[in-house]
Amino acid sequence: MPGGVTALPASSRRSETLGGGSTDLVVPVLKPLKIGDLVVDPPILQAPMAGYTNFAFRQIVRQFGGTGLLATEMVNARGFVWLDEQEATHPDRLWGVAEEPRPLAVQIWDNDPETLAKVGARLAQEYKVSVVDINFGCPVRQVTQRAKSGSYLLRTPDRMGQIIERVVAACHPTPVTAKTRLGCSRDKINIGEVAEIVEQAGAAALTVHGRTAADMFRGEASWDLISQIKPRLKRIPLIGNGDLSTPQQVVEAFTRWNVDGVMIARACLNKPWLFRQAAAALRGEPIPPDPTLEEERSLLLHHFDLVCQRFGEERGAVLMRKYACCYAQGRQGARDFRKQVVEIKTSAEFYDVVRRTFPKA
């Protein structure tokens, strides 16, 4: 049975000081989230994000704790098969997957059931991942228009069902999940129909981002529409995703909206400790403070070292530009730091820019 939540009565509310202010939190009574036979506890998931959630980033998230299930970047199934046929090294997006702790989900994308099934089976049997997730939500043009994949498949829910059925059969007993959006556009919201097809096809869980494909990442995620999906599901859990950036918002997702789990995405890129804070809030415990700026600076340099161990110093310096910008987000002096860090080409330059211009207040 999927997990669920109920709110404690008002007399059981706890008051926590968050960000300098006092906020009454209705602490939910949580059941662990179950994805097939996998227990996800706490029911907080890290979203797969292309270009960001690689092995180095996942190590940073694990360092803080609070995440029930981590995920890789999404993997191009067709590209994986091609590399395999050429006996080449498997994609960088599978860096670390074979050895790192479980549970771990790997997300794959394509529009061909056989290709996805072939890759899913390899991930389940050879890599022994905890969950194989299928991407039906990516809205970027390269995936939708060029490859007719990701959120493009919301136009053909029956095709989604065929894909899920084939991947589920290939991966058994490893659970297969689906991540999607509300629909192609605001006037073509079909997530209710999609949810029923996803469940009937054998998926073990459904994650819904509260925007449409046309929305991209603009506007606000519609949690009201996410909550309306729950009655359409009879056996599998519903995981909500979109605009969760504070512990309070995570608690509210469980107490106000009808979800069994939550997935945190962009907010964790500049706050990888958010999972730990959200997990504490869900337990009714004091919220751990943010790291100091000095601690953040040390964390950034540690992250850089992890990336360089894989890609070398020169390529690592270039790859770390976007992460460095995330670390500085919202800080005084962040603009000057970003302006300089996006130009660095060597590790020496990276260390120098961090030393001189990383925000100090």
What does this structure look like?
The chain is 40% helix and 17% strand. It has 361 residues and is an alpha/beta fold. It has two domains: 5-282, TIM Barrel; 293-357, Non-ribosomal Peptide Synthetase Peptidyl Carrier Protein, Chain A, CATH 1.10.1200.80. The strands form four sheets. It has an eight-stranded parallel beta sheet with strand order 7-14-13-12-11-10-9-8. It has a two-stranded antiparallel sheet with strand order 1-4. α3 (113-127) packs parallel to α5 and α11 runs antiparallel to α12 (313-328). The radius of gyration is 20 Å and the shape is globular. The termini are far apart.
SSE topology:
Blueprint: E1 5-7, E2 14-18, E3 21-25, E4 28-30, E5 33-35, E6 38-40, E7 44-46, H1 55-64, E8 70-76, H2 77-85, E9 104-109, H3 113-127, E10 131-136, H4 141-144, H5 157-171, E11 176-181, H6 191-200, E12 205-209, H7 223-227, E13 238-241, H8 247-256, E14 261-264, H9 267-270, H10 274-282, H11 293-311, H12 313-328, H13 334-341, H14 347-357
Parallel strand pairs: 7-14, 8-9, 9-10, 10-11, 11-12, 12-13, 13-14
Antiparallel strand pairs: 1-4, 2-3, 5-6
Helix pairs in contact: 2-3, 3-5, 5-6, 8-10, 11-12, 12-13, 13-14
Enzyme class: oxidoreductase
Region (Disordered): 1-20
Active site: 138 (proton donor)
